[in-house]
Design a protein that fits this description.
5-stranded parallel beta sheet, alpha/beta, Rossmann fold, 19 helices, 4 domains
Length: 462
């Protein structure tokens, strides 16, 4: 978070700047209101710390302008007297706090941490409601976005189908956040994590003495989700006896606790998710047909990462920004090609974990390469197996990609009679990048022999 300090007293301005910087904040300190206003127009700030009394543009004028430009800016005003009427005016203009001189700089550091926490909570809330939390521009994802937008406003139950790692819970949260129930709770239940004897207690709750060890009355997830949404993840793992009770809850809109004698009305929207084809489970007798049709009011299928053509570079950029800690990491072009060729059986979750691993294994390097993503971790671990054409070629993916790249570069250089400027243009890379690749693969001018009629060359191509 960026903090702007405006105070004409040099001692206050500089010591406060240093203490906030030591606490991990980006800090700009200026001596008057005009300079502060110019800085605000140049670059946004999350927090303003300003003296009220300053020559020229005073703190109140600065605060009023700042709030018009950035309504959510966290403002702390410095005053020489807490009984001053200007303090009241500062609050009216939107100041979050005012502090009286002399003050302990740690007091401002604590307020800065409060501001950062507030903005982080706001960011998460906006991200949950915004489609920015789902990264992708492929046709497959555009269809998902459109469907989420269409169904969110309704109050019908939803069945999300998708393999592990495709983002089913993220989509469920988006549906809830954009629905009329957004102000109510979102309660997730991961059905596969509970034993058959415990899942009913988790879903419906219990009364005291319902079973050995049941001390006190406990509300279940459905009761806690009242006026909101309950997300039943991996519902394909739900035991058949529990399915019978769930069907009754959906039909009657009420739950009965274990050991209870009276039904409790619940008003919930059910969003269920499955990694398996429930229709096939119904046919195999492993899932109740009546429950399946009750849940499958609005079906929503999430595509595997393999089906999301063009999304991998966007996801890589997103995860590097998310986990890179503003350290300037970027991914080597060759590596991106290798990662796009891999089939990602674990989908987006596997890709996300691969980025985390690459950052951890990169050491001091800022360019993330294929070996950072594909390197085995732990005893006996193996790198992901690349998608190969049938045959006996069992080289690692990075070796296949490098061999193909080298052969293609040699072919283009032969086509251009060694003209590196023309070759770089055809390859869609810079001359510098081409030179680096030629050096990497040991390609010199003599090895790029001319086999085709020469094309015209510029002096710079030599």
């Amino acid at each position: 978070m960026r903090i702007l300090i405006a105070d004409d007293e040099k001692g206050i301005r500089l010591t406060l700047r240093d203490d906030l910087a030591d606490a991990g904040f980006e800090v700009i300190a200026v001596a008057d209101g005009e300079a502060a206003w110019n800085e605000l127009q140049r670059k946004p700030c999350g927090m303003l710390v300003s003296d009220i009394v300053m020559p020229g543009m005073d703190g109140l004028q600065l605060l009023e302008k700042a709030k018009k430009l950035y309504p959510s800016i966290f403002a702390v005003m410095i005053t020489g007297n807490t009984s001053d009427e200007r303090n009241k005016r500062a609050v009216e203009l939107g100041a979050n706090y005012y502090i009286e001189k002399p003050f302990d700089n740690n007091q401002v550091v604590l307020l800065a941490r409060e501001a950062r926490q507030k903005f982080e909570l706001q960011r998460k809330a906006e991200e949950q409601k915004s489609f920015q939390s789902l990264v992708g521009s492929s046709e497959a994802m555009k269809q998902v976005f459109q469907l989420i937008e269409n169904i969110a406003e309704s109050d019908f139950d939803v069945l999300i189908t998708g393999a592990n790692g495709t983002g089913k819970e993220q989509v469920a949260r988006l549906i809830h956040a954009n629905s009329p129930r957004a102000d109510g709770p979102f309660i997730p239940v991961h059905c596969g994590t509970y034993a058959e004897t415990l899942i009913e207690d988790e879903l419906f709750g219990h009364e005291e003495g319902a079973y050995t060890g049941a001390s006190g009355s406990r509300a279940g997830r459905f009761q806690r989700a009242n006026r909101g949404s309950v997300f039943l993840d991996d519902i394909d793992d739900m035991p058949l006896p529990t399915q019978v009770k769930l069907l009754r809850v959906l039909q009657e809109k009420e739950v009965e606790k274990l050991g209870g004698t009276r039904p409790i009305p619940v008003d919930v929207r059910v969003i269920a998710a499955t990694k398996e084809d429930l229709g096939k489970l119904v046919a195999a007798g492993k899932f109740r047909e009546d429950l399946y049709y009750r849940l499958n009011v609005i079906p929503l299928r999430l595509p595997n990462l393999q089906e999301r053509y063009g999304d991998i570079p966007l996801l890589l950029e997103h995860f590097v920004a998310k986990y890179g800690g503003n350290k300037g990491y970027r991914i080597d072009e060759d590596c991106i090609a290798a990662l796009e060729a891999y089939d990602w059986p674990g989908n987006v979750r596997e890709l996300e974990n691969a980025v985390k691993r690459a950052i951890a294994l990169s050491g001091k390097e800022k360019i993330l390469k294929a070996e950072h993503f594909l390197r085995p971790v732990g005893p006996g671990a193996k790198p992901p197996v690349p998608a190969l054409t049938p045959g006996d070629d069992l080289r690692e993916l990075k070796d296949v990609v490098e061999a193909s790249e080298e052969a293609h570069i040699r072919q283009i250089l032969q086509h251009t009679a060694g003209a590196k400027g023309d070759a770089a243009s055809i390859l869609g890379i810079s001359r510098k990048n081409l030179w680096e690749k030629m050096k990497k693969y040991g390609i010199d001018d003599s090895s790029a022999s001319v086999r085709l009629p020469p094309v015209s060359m510029n002096e710079d191509d030599e």
